[in-house]
Design goal:
648 residues, alpha+beta, six-stranded antiparallel β-sheet, five-stranded antiparallel β-sheet, 13 strands, 65% helix, 11% strand, elongated
């Protein structure tokens, strides 16, 4: 954003002619016979639009006497104001600011609000470059307050936009955004199409910093479409960069990469070294987070090259400044020698020697600067080689570590699979049943459980805290607690089993010095001949009978630490031939998908089970798998999925 405001201020301070022919034409008019007022107006027009010190001096030498002759105070103020800008352009900031401050006081005396607004704007820009943000804010605010109240103009909109940008770290971002939106409204009202993209981009950045992602994205899209339609390429690719930067800051690295890469290509093609460091930084990190190490390394190398280029430019510029100052001194000495030739004749030899010494000094300074630059570049080269080797080594280490972790996770999957009931055991104990089990990762926090008893069979669908490796660890503890409740304590009533399981799980977690709040949601059923017993922790039981669903809800407490814990409720009911029993975890119903990216929800699952309830158990499982993947589409699976269906 700082780049944008500097660009605005630069255009305001040092605008050049659109075409040289305009200046030439006006200078030809000055050579003709015209009255003094018309001549002064033309000279002031040229003064306001030239950035060349020599031209300014020429116009000033003619305009100043005319302004005094005609007693035109406004013209005199404009001359002084623009002379201040010329001095600032040549890095004589103290002298330039002094003249502008004098001009401002004189403009206040004659109550020229447009001139006052322009000068406050220039002063604010100077403070902004000097990073005196409080003073920059005050001056930009005055530029808006002093502007004439009648009508709208592009200059007023520019003042509001600059005020919004320089105020970012002085007042609240909400107030700074409000200034930018005022500027945007004025530009849209006066149909300043060429000036709209920069306002869209500025406001979008502030929206994003405020966490208003949707508004930020909408303005960036507007900037892209408008910039593209009017072929304002600098604004277009800055907007594309912002789109990538927003995605990057939301940690959507793979989505950010194409936009950042497109902006990078444009700025590389146009050798825009001032923009490349920022985009290289984001692009390098995005490639790195996306584990695209080859492109990450390439981007890092490009970034180093640009940094070195900027360093060289600074050094060469420093040497050029020394040479320019030397030439200026030399010119002044020649002028002085011409005026006082007789006095300097006696000291001619001494002066010549002094000049030679000065040249030698300048030459030595330039040589030292170049030598320092060469040494720096050599050290940077060696450092880049080391960085490249280090990145390659780190990449190999990451790949080895990644393989080790993947092997460990695969082995953990074998262990978790070993504690799950086998297909043969399920078929033996439940003649018509299916188990739909879709872990989100290699290992899962969901698991299904089955245990034969003397009277019948127990089965359950369980959901432990988390998924992946953490969830799998909790599932092993909870699975073991269920087995102990049945085998060691000889329990067969679902509610008693859940009470004892909770006790055993809490006992395991209490061994840790840390306070563990993990646990399990579960739907546990027991079938004894034509009798069904059920108890649940959050997870419900569904029974499809004669085309209609019955639902029995579980207790609103987990298997784990809970402040208002109470004994679990046992529910019993008689079964009829053809009844279908369903227990499940929340992974299926919580999956995002469909045209609008919403959750599947329990209601949709019930309706779908109704439509397929007449099919065989095996076909029901197939239909559930198909509808799940169809609903999910290209979206990521959000949680483990476990559904058990049993037909009596």
């Amino acid at each position: 954003m700082k780049y944008l405001i500097i660009l605005i201020s630069y255009l305001s301070l040092y605008s050049a002619f659109g075409q040289m022919s305009e200046a030439d034409s006006l200078e030809q008019i000055l050579e003709s016979e015209i009255d003094d007022k018309e001549r002064l107006d033309i000279l002031i027009y040229l003064i306001e639009r030239t950035g060349e010190p020599e031209k300014f001096a020429q116009y000033k030498s003619e305009a100043e006497p005319l302004a005094n002759l005609l007693q035109d105070q406004e013209a005199a103020i404009k001359i002084k104001y623009n002379e201040g800008k010329i001095w600032m352009q040549n890095q004589e900031n103290a002298r330039g600011m002094g003249l502008i401050q004098e001009a401002l006081l004189e403009a206040e005396e004659i109550k020229d609000s447009i001139l006052m607004s322009q000068m406050h704007y220039t002063i604010g820009a100077f403070y902004f470059w000097s990073e005196e943000l409080d003073n920059a804010h005050k001056s930009m605010l005055r530029s808006v307050e002093t502007y004439p109240t009648y009508g709208d103009s592009l200059r007023l909109a520019t003042n509001y936009m600059a005020l919004g940008v320089v105020s970012q770290n002085v007042i609240t971002k909400e107030d700074a955004l409000n200034y930018q939106l005022i500027a945007l409204e004025i530009k849209e009202r006066i149909n300043a199409v060429d000036a709209l993209p920069i306002s869209y981009n500025n406001a979008a950045e502030t929206y994003f910093e405020l966490g208003m992602i949707t508004e930020a994205n909408n303005l960036v899209e507007k900037a892209i479409h408008l910039s593209d339609s009017i072929q304002q390429l600098s604004s277009l690719y800055y907007a594309i960069f912002l789109k990538g930067e927003f995605l990057y800051k939301q940690e959507k690295y793979r989505l950010a990469i194409p936009h950042l890469a497109e902006a990078t290509q444009y700025w590389e093609d146009n050798e825009s070294t001032k923009d490349l460091p920022r985009v290289y930084k984001h692009l390098y990190q995005a490639y790195k987070e996306a584990e695209d190490f080859e492109n990450a390394l390439l981007t890092l190398e490009k970034s180093n090259v640009v940094r070195d280029t900027l360093f060289n430019i600074e050094k060469i510029s420093a040497a050029a400044d020394i040479e320019a100052k030397y030439e200026g001194v030399k010119k002044d000495m020649e002028i002085l020698r011409e005026k006082e030739e007789k006095e300097w004749a006696i000291k001619e030899n001494e002066l010549t020697k002094s000049q030679e010494n000065l040249r030698l000094t300048i030459f030595i300074v330039i040589c030292v600067v170049l030598l320092v630059n060469i040494l720096y570049l050599y050290r940077r080269y060696k450092s880049q080689r080391k960085d490249k080797e280090l990145i390659q080594l780190q990449k190999q280490q990451i790949e080895i570590r990644s393989e080790e972790i993947q092997d460990s996770i695969n082995y953990a999957k074998r262990i978790q699979s070993a504690i799950l009931p086998s297909k043969s055991l399920i078929s033996e104990e439940l003649e018509e049943a299916f188990v739909l089990y879709l872990p989100k990762d290699v290992v899962a926090g969901d698991f299904y459980w089955l245990h034969p008893t003397k009277k019948g069979v127990l089965f359950a669908a369980a959901d432990c805290t988390g998924h992946g490796v953490p969830g799998a660890l909790v599932s092993v503890i909870c699975n073991n607690a269920l087995n102990r409740s049945v085998r060691e304590f000889n329990l067969d009533k679902p509610s008693d089993i859940l009470d004892k399981t909770r006790e055993l799980v809490l006992s395991e977690f209490d061994k840790s010095e840390d306070q563990v709040k993990d646990g399990m949601d579960i739907a546990l059923c027991s079938i004894e001949e034509n009798k069904l017993h059920y108890s649940g922790a959050h997870n419900p039981l569904w029974i499809l009978r004669d085309g209609e669903f019955m639902e029995i809800k579980g207790d609103k407490q987990p298997i784990g630490k809970f402040e208002m814990a109470k004994p679990f409720t046992n529910h019993s009911l008689d079964l009829k031939k053809g009844d279908q029993i369903y227990v499940f975890t929340d992974g299926f119903v919580d999956q995002f998908g469909g045209e609008k990216g919403k959750k599947f929800k329990a209601k949709s699952l019930r309706e779908f089970l109704k439509t397929i309830g007449h099919k065989s158990i095996a076909d029901q499982k197939t239909e559930l798998i198909n509808i799940f993947h169809q609903w999910k589409g290209d979206l990521e699976q959000v949680d483990d999925v476990c559904v058990i269906g049993v037909r009596v």
